[in-house]
């Protein structure tokens, strides 16, 4: 036998005849008309199609189409690839559920965790009981039930050795704890990323505001009509005052120029005025003397 064929063989344990089924349900399956109708189906794919078409579960020891198909699969001795095909099937969750039940009944207990651990969070739903109030569970919850519980819908499951059962419980507990840590850490990172994003937005907005304030020119002042009138009066008063100041400055300039005449020039003026006065007095005295002779 080649290595490829050896790797494809599923390691089983327990009763090779009954598939580790409860004795009552095993007998009920063998006596079921539906199970006898499956005799003419000889291949794996034919049974898979049958599960797709007829797949309700049942509560108690009454055989259902799902359990009849399950035992029919056992008669075919499924390989690893065929089991993988069932538990990853995309057409029907019932095909997947029968695949997990097959593993729980015949797979070596020490290998159950390797098969089930990847599906504990699977959210696909199946209906495991019919009636007025049908029971629905997810594939992930089904896997947990098959690992840690001793019954499935009132039907006894194969007994798992105590050391292996404790190891499975511990692994499941560690898995849940790690899942919570990962979830809390992810939420913490999301919160930090959100804070960083808000901080970056605040910094960018503040820098853009600073840039806009630097780049903007000073705002122009606008005035109302009344304000403009007051402003015109103010400008007129300013211009009038400036004219008065100019006139006053010109007069002061004239005065300063008068005061700035040189002393020599003033002396000449005084000399000329005195000489004119002397001349006038002399002329007057000569006239008086001529008249006095007559």
Automatic annotation (TrEMBL):
Required for pre-mRNA splicing. Belongs to the PRP38 family. GO terms for biological process: mRNA splicing, via spliceosome. Residues 175-201, 224-255, 276-294 have a biased composition (Basic and acidic residues). It comes from Mucor plumbeus. One of its GO terms (cellular component) is spliceosomal complex. This is Pre-mRNA-splicing factor 38. Pfam families: PRP38. It is found in: Nucleus. Residues 209-223 have a biased composition (Basic residues). The keyword Nucleus applies. Residues 175-294 are annotated as: Disordered. InterPro entries: PRP38 (IPR005037). Keywords: mRNA processing, mRNA splicing, Nucleus, Spliceosome.
């Amino acid at each position: 036998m080649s290595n490829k064929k050896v790797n494809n063989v599923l390691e089983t344990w327990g009763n090779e005849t009954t598939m580790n089924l409860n004795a009552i349900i095993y007998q009920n399956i063998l006596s079921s008309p539906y199970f006898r109708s499956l005799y003419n189906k000889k291949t794996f794919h034919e049974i898979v199609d049958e599960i797709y078409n007829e797949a309700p579960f049942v509560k108690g020891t009454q055989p259902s189409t799902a359990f009849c198909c399950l035992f029919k699969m056992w008669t075919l001795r499924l390989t690893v690839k065929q089991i993988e095909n069932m538990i990853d099937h995309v057409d029907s969750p019932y095909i997947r559920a029968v695949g997990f039940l097959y593993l729980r009944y015949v797979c070596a207990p020490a290998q159950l965790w390797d098969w089930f651990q990847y599906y504990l969070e699977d959210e696909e739903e199946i209906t495991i009981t019919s009636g007025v109030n049908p029971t629905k569970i997810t594939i992930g919850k089904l896997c947990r039930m098959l690992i840690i519980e001793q019954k499935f819908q009132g039907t006894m499951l194969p007994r798992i050795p105590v050391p292996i059962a404790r190891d499975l419980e511990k692994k499941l507990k560690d898995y849940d704890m790690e899942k919570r840590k990962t979830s809390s850490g992810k939420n913490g990172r999301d919160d930090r990323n959100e804070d960083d994003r808000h901080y970056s937005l605040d910094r960018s907005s503040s820098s853009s505001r600073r840039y806009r304030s630097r780049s903007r020119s000073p705002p122009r002042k606008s005035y109302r009509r009344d304000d403009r009138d007051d402003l015109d009066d103010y400008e007129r008063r300013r211009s009038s005052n400036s004219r008065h100041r100019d006139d006053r400055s010109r007069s002061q300039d004239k005065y300063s120029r008068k005061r700035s005449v040189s002393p020599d020039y003033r002396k000449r003026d005084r000399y000329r005025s005195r000489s004119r006065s002397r001349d006038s007095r002399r002329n007057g005295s000569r006239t008086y003397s001529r008249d006095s002779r007559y």
